[in-house]
Write a structure and sequence with these properties.
136 residues, flat, mainly beta, 7-stranded mixed sheet, 5-stranded parallel sheet, 0% helix
Length: 136
């Protein structure tokens, strides 16, 4: 059972193993619950969240955040001022971009390595180091 939306503020949510959600549009969020149920968004301030093992969350818009709970799940925030968090057994990927969107730094880490704590929001600073970030 997959869900996909296009349009600003058009959200998608699914529940069930392998039930994916994807959105395109500013502030168009995607959320899933279930193992291997992924969420992806493209759009400014369009967040992605998943609950379940191997359930990944990815965002590409500016100020868009990615969060996962579940083992082996990756949260990736790839836009300007993006934030990511994951639970124990998961991992994060975050970028630092200049104001024009140019990629300056990108880092990935498993939770429990490189000082990354479970269920804490992270971004990158101008030096490419992980920093704890305020919740969105």
């Amino acid at each position: 059972a997959n869900a996909a939306t296009t349009g600003n503020w058009a959200n998608a949510a699914t529940t069930g193993e392998g039930a994916n959600a994807a959105t395109t549009g500013d502030r168009a969020n995607a959320a899933t619950t279930g193992n291997r149920a992924n969420a992806a968004t493209t759009g400014n301030r369009a967040n992605a969240a998943t609950t379940g093992n191997w359930a990944n969350a990815a965002t590409t818009g500016n100020r868009a955040n990615a969060a996962t709970t579940g083992e082996h799940a990756v949260a990736a925030a790839l836009g300007i001022e993006g934030k990511a968090k994951a639970s124990a057994g998961g991992a994060i990927v975050v970028c630092y971009r200049n104001d024009d969107g140019g990629l300056i730094h990108i880092r990935a880490s498993k939770v429990g390595e490189n000082g990354i704590k479970p269920n804490v929001w992270y971004s990158l600073d101008a030096a490419g180091e992980f920093v704890e970030a305020e919740a969105p």
